[in-house]
């Protein structure tokens, strides 16, 4: 048995040999570090940049291997430590399970919190409330509810592979990560990613929303950074009304996208129409 085969068997709950071991370059297992010591591994990480085409092969092999591939980015360009991945800055202790949650309820809660308090959790003063009103128009009366599922399904897996090629072409520093999970949404919880910790400490809630978007918009999680996500989208909104509803979901999920980006939902929403990629980042 090769070292790679041995490592992948440690990741899989079944302990069975992995169907993709022969495809992989040199790499190693990574686990969360507690008091300087690494505990149970949750991720296989390539030692070097992801070879072109490998993500697509691993993605196609996922049904047999049980290992979901992620393109992993470091904290910053040129980060030799490759944080948080190679340094084990992961946390599997604080997460619950994605299927515990109603994603629509999570988004409503995220919206209500993001539109009623400031960054310190204090009630908004009148000037802040007026500014917020401009940001969240046309939904001044409150949470509009989640957008309806897209009528056009597209090809979610094909869209994911296309985005992976595009992301790799733009960033040769990306590495391959493998997580024992049913898909990208579950992989975030399984590996203990904690990118949005300043906004949400239980990553299973993030996974629950991503699972819902997989169903409604044909999204797939392709790339994960220190506090960033890149999703392919097979069924994006096609008209303004739906795009505004989706923009409200994005604000509820990741308020920094709007409040530190476009500034208003009406400025943000047009970029979602027909968009085949959604990007999120948390400050």
Quickly list its features.
single chain, 283 residues, alpha+beta, 2 domains, 7-stranded mixed β-sheet, two-stranded antiparallel sheet, 10 helices, 38% helix, globular
Give average pLDDT, whole number.
Answer: 90
- Please report the distance between the alpha carbons of the first and last residues: 43 Å
Shape: globular
Poorly predicted regions: none
Give the SSE order as H and E letters: HEEEEHEHHHEHHEEHHHE
Number of domains: 2
Q: Number of helix segments?
A: 10
CA-atom Rg in angstroms: 19 Å
Portion of residues within helices? 25-40%
Q: In which order are the strands of the major sheet placed?
A: 1-4-6-5-7-8-9
Taken as a percent bin, the fraction of beta residues is 5-15%
Q: Total strand count, please?
A: 9
What is the SS-derived class?
A: alpha+beta
Largest sheet at a glance? 7 strands, mixed
Pfam families: DUF4253 (PF14062)
Domain DUF4253: 175-283
InterPro entries: DUF4253
